[in-house]
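Hi F.,

I've been meaning to write this up properly since the lab meeting, where we talked about keeping a consistent format for the predictions we share between groups. The idea is simple: the sequence comes first, exactly as it goes in, then the structure tokens exactly as they come out, then a line or two of notes. No screenshots and no reformatting. I'm using this chain as the first example so we have something concrete to point to.
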Amino acid sequence: MIGTHDRRPAARAERVFAWSLGAVLVVGLVAAAWIGVRGGMAVAHLSSARQTLQAAEAGPHDPPTIAVALATVRDDTSAARSLTSDPVWSWAEPLPWIGPQLRALAVSSAALDTAVSEGLGPLSSAASGLSTDVLRPREGAFDTTVIASLEPEADAAATHLRAAADELSRIDTAPLLGPLRDGVTRARELVDGAASASDALHRATLLLPRMLGTDGQRSYLVLFQNNAEWRSLGGIVGAVAQVDTQDGRFALVDQASTSDFPVEAEPVVDLPGEVQDLFDTRPARYIQNVTQVPDFTLGAPIAREMWKRLRGRTVDGVITLDPVTLGYVLKATGPVTLPTGDHLTPDNAVPLLLQEVYQRYPDPARQDEFFRAATAAVFSALAEGRADPELLLAALMRAGSEGRLMLWSADADEQAILDGTTLQGTLPDDGTDRSTFGVYLNDGTGSKMDSYLRPSVDVAWCGQDSAVLGVTLRNDAPDPASLPSYVTGGGEYGVPVGEALTGVYVVLPAEGRLEGYASTTDGIPPGFAGGTLEGRPVLKWSVQLAPGEQAHLDVRVSTPWTPHLGAVVTPTIVSPAIGRGATGCGGN
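Output, unedited:
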């Protein structure tokens, strides 16, 4: 009897434990089913939002259509956010393995909902206001007051989209399953792109009214870079113009060619010692070389001082662009007719201005005259309001993102608005989430052979704190006998006719330290030198190639790992894509 009595509490305990375990399992199964169903519904809503955005991008961009699309997208992202933010979902987020998946989906849903609800709406409203007839001059003047009125919406869009992009960037994708990792990556790219666009739009609403002379007359020096003869920021300065603005109107008031500028015996401004070590004093003595230093905030004031000495005028800012940019703008204005009878179009702008003109006119003075005529024709088309506003905005944004369009202002407050943008033309701005190489190309031949050179660039991580950059340069020039001496250089500076000598300046990431480099070449063995620029290590690679030859350089650096590894490259006739498969991890 005693033994039987003693077993009753134990039996009850076993039953209680079994019931408790069963209850836990039931709750767990119910929670898992709850999370699974809601997770599937959330993914379906996000997929629907993505499809709606893609359809809107491919369809008409009129405000009513965009408003309907955004309302549909907002409903989907709001539903996805609600489905992934209930107490059961939050309870499961700390769990191993499944927790990071749930947390990533919840954060992505919330960030995308913020981006759509608080960011894309104001961005669409502001962009539609800026890309319609506001950008078309009326009676020769732009309405700067309307542009300025869009600033609050543009500011709100930029703030919320950047906050959403930052939330997505903080998601650790390492433990995520493949499909979810891909989804997070796509979301990052989408929101980051929208954040960059809204930021650019906000800065435009702040700058454009001032630049168009809403507060009084402004003068700007425009530098036209020639990509057929490389300099770090694009090409040599081949022609210049002064553009004045006031009350929304602008006019081309003066032009000059580089031959009008004297070679200065002494630098017109003081250059930092590290700049002189790399480039000598040429950037501050020759107008052609003001873009040789890969920092437009240094080169622009030099050009301003040279113009003052030549014409006696002090401009308020300096702008630079290239023939590729003119081609983009011509998509908005349509073809223009030159005094020679030529029709300058988006398709022929680059070959006509960078190749054919040299074969047609051996005399450099005639070449300069042709460039001036082309410039005047495009500016006239803009001043007459012949540009489609939406296409013009797209052209300028594309040129800016490719580093072809840069702006410097002598007003410190206006210059600060450009901080951190590609329009400043400064060295890559690294941070805790980004490491960037700079690859800057400079002609050493004294020719126009660079229109035939083709660079390509690759980057890759070779471990947690080691990165590699690969640079390939190929000479695709035809038989030198078919080219005029002005293009080949005629051997004037010691480089054989048809060959091209290039100085490639590789600027390491901000926290990078050079570990090693290796080069292979079909031509003359390369030379190497080094230095620093703004405190960052620089490796100079000098390579000389005959037609049909190519060379390759691998540079290895030790630098803290970051989620993004990239490169900024001199904008050439055809901008090289930045690949992600450099092969120099194992070399010496």
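Notes:
The chain has 15 helices and 17 strands.
The first helix runs from residue 2 to 58.

If this format works for you, I'll send the rest the same way.

G.
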